[in-house]
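REQUEST FORM: STRUCTURE PREDICTION
Request ID: SP-0412
Submitted by: Lab K.M.
Chain count: 1
Length (residues): 304
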Amino acid sequence: MTRRSRTVARIAACLAAGLAFACGRSETRNATSGAQRYAIAGVIQSLDAGKSEITLEHGPIEGFMDTGMTMVFPVHADAAFVAGLAAGDRISGTLVVDGGKYWIEGVKREPAAPASPVPASTGGSAASAASATVTPHPNRGIAVGDRMPDFTLTDQKGQPMRLSDLAGEPVAVTFIYTRCPIATACPLTTAKFSKLAASLAAAGFGHLVTITVDPEHDTPSVLDDYAKRAGADPKRWKFLTGDPKAVADVVERFGVLYYPDKGQVVHQQGVAVLDAAGRLANIYYGEDWEPEHILRDMEKARKG
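STATUS: Completed
RESULT:
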């Protein structure tokens, strides 16, 4: 393992253990002569201005990290500037890795990604191209205990499905896209849901819902093929897509964000559990959950 890969592994391990700030924060703004610097950009998911710390969903970091992640970073910047940042802001800066310490400096707030220009000759395709830029709004997720507003999307069989169609049973909801290239992201989420589906089938209750964050590509037929490879029973496990705006409106209610980036879709990982009345019983963000956790929450939600 190279020095760089060991550093990446250490950062990831610290974050997974919930110790990112303690493990990685530098107590000084001055890097040593051996510090390495890398360009980094992404969308802020949350921040703690008092600690000058942000949770950043970023893409691959050239020369350092081949895949995107959601990670916690100390920020070296003026306190007033950090306090003025907000979840949903797109930022860029320089990741400094100095031995066992790391931080971001030179932070700049970037404008929102512009809509892709569409030649006039494309006619009716203009709306489709513009829709590709539709993304969820930050800070619109409902709170635990609140009822999820009803919605209608299209399942993998091409049929409309309302959330209220599943009333009377607890429901677990997650978010993926079929072209996801990161094995520990969407493919792992789907594998965990497959295990959960088997447990629910044995127990005889519950529903699963997987919503794509790439509705332009993930049509019902694409989702149907994906669902079949996952061994999904369409009666219990629905894969949903729809108009990009409709999908974004639904996903933002769960507090999940996503955006297109260089042919991929950068998105938060999350699993929500709704009780039989459609209220949000619990939600997990990131990878720190197992099928057994969701099954336990669904059993609890079933009993009320």
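NOTES: The radius of gyration is 20 Å.
Reviewed by: T.R.
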